[in-house]
Design brief:
Elements lengths: L1 H16 L2 H38 L4 E6 L8 E2 L4 E3 L4 H8 L6 E14 L2 E10 L3 H4 L4 E4 L4 H5 L4 E4 L1 H7 L9 E4 L2 E9 L20 E5 H7 L3 E6 L2 E6 L4 E5 L6 H15 L5 E4 L1 H44 L1 H9 L4 H27 L2 H15 L1 H5 L3
Parallel strand pairs: 3-12, 5-10, 7-9
Antiparallel strand pairs: 1-13, 1-14, 2-3, 4-5, 4-8, 4-13, 6-9, 7-10, 8-9, 11-12
């Protein structure tokens, strides 16, 4: 019996080898189908997990209050074209009266040119307090971060992101060196480790790459730079007057997040006539991301399944053609005493071999997905570097 089964398998494989081109094309259809399933699900899972990671880094127990420019007809301006909007220092006291708020991280940020020797870069200047590094998951590489003493004494110190340190000090130790921002000197006291970029959330929360950041004490910013920032571009002068760019509130548990966010909205609506602020709740975004991730995975799976079904239909067509062209052979075998199951078994063997070979090669091809994506990214980096910088 075992010898008979082995003979059936031999005949099936031999029949496939007699038509190598047809067999190869059939295997190719299954390969594409299986590889597509693995690739699409892997890419979809990777994109979804990256989006979820970036939202989780904002903090499930954090609530972010951002200054945003309201509609043009409600913006306050003066004769010098300074646009006034956003969170004010006086708002903090009222917001801290919300019982569930345990801490508030205040931030003022803007774009500023920074200079060291003959090198000039467009930096992202972040004025903050010592808690900023912990909340934003930043790690020190050299030196230290901003301290409470720096904030209280309004120290002329700064901490550089890894990208800024590489541009200013490619071959020397940056600690103790003096850089200039708006012609004012700042002593470098620390360098941060590289950090993965964070994604933007609509118009409320901009993306941040942490490459060109320079961190200074918040009180130092208010004293040396002030609330007004002037921009000159193509001969046009414009400016903004913003006291605080962002406040990140922290609560004890996730159950307090939504009620606290509602309380912040109510408090801000009383303090501001215009809606020149936005409240971002990472916990709500995380729940939405999980739902979107499930829907996305189902959608990608359906697309991959259709591709796999098309490959299966290809096998059906090939086997139908095989049966049709071998009708005379089948009749001779039946006349010599072969049973219907014996003949059916041979065609099933051919089908199984084609499916198994295509499936195994397809799974192997699916495992090349990370390598192929890496090669594609490197190619695009050479051809379109600006587009690649915005990829996740």
């Amino acid at each position: 019996m075992n010898l008979l089964r082995l003979r059936v398998w031999r005949l099936g494989v031999k029949s496939l080898l007699l038509h190598p081109l047809r067999s190869m094309l059939t295997v190719l259809g299954i390969f594409i189908g299986v590889a597509s399933v693995v690739w699409l699900l892997a890419i979809g899972e990777g994109i979804s997990l990256e989006a979820q990671r970036q939202i989780e880094e904002l903090g499930a127990t954090n609530i972010i209050l951002r200054s945003v420019i309201p509609a043009d007809d409600s913006v306050s301006t003066d004769a010098e074209f300074y646009v006034r909007y956003g969170i004010r220092r006086s708002d903090v006291a009222g917001l801290m009266e919300i019982p569930t708020v345990t801490n508030a991280l205040k931030i003022r940020e803007t774009m500023r040119e920074a200079h060291y020797g003959s090198v000039t870069i467009a930096s992202h200047l972040v004025a903050c307090t010592p808690e900023y590094a912990e909340v934003m998951h930043l790690d020190i590489d050299l030196g230290r971060f901003i301290s409470d003493v720096d904030v209280i004494q309004r120290g002329n110190v700064c901490v550089l992101a890894a990208g800024v340190a590489r541009q200013f000090f490619p071959t020397e130790n940056p600690l103790g060196k003096v850089i200039r921002i708006r012609e004012l000197p700042y002593v470098v006291v620390g360098v941060m480790q590289p950090r993965a970029p964070s994604a933007g959330i609509g118009s409320s929360l901009a993306a941040q790459d942490f490459v060109n950041d320079i961190y200074i004490p918040l009180e130092t910013f208010w004293q040396r730079i002030g609330d007004r920032v002037l921009f000159i571009q193509s001969g046009q002068r414009s400016g903004e007057e913003v006291q605080l760019s962002q406040i990140t509130f922290q609560v004890q548990s996730t159950r307090e997040v939504v009620p606290t966010a509602d309380a912040i909205r109510r408090t801000m609506s009383k303090l501001h006539q215009e809606e020149d602020y936005a409240v971002v709740v990472p916990l709500e975004l995380l729940e939405q991301a999980r739902t979107t991730r499930l829907m996305f995975m189902v959608f990608m799976g359906l697309i991959a399944a259709v591709t796999l079904i098309v490959g299966g239909i290809g096998i059906m067509n090939i086997m139908l053609a095989t049966v049709t062209e071998r009708t005379r052979e089948i009749g001779i075998r039946r006349a010599l005493g072969a049973k219907q199951w014996d003949i059916t078994q041979q065609f099933l063997v051919e089908t199984v071999v084609l499916s198994a070979v295509g499936g195994v090669i397809g799974i192997g091809g699916g495992f090349t997905c990370p390598w192929m994506m890496d090669q594609l990214r490197h190619f695009l980096q050479r051809v379109m570097p600006e587009a690649v910088d915005n990829l996740p």
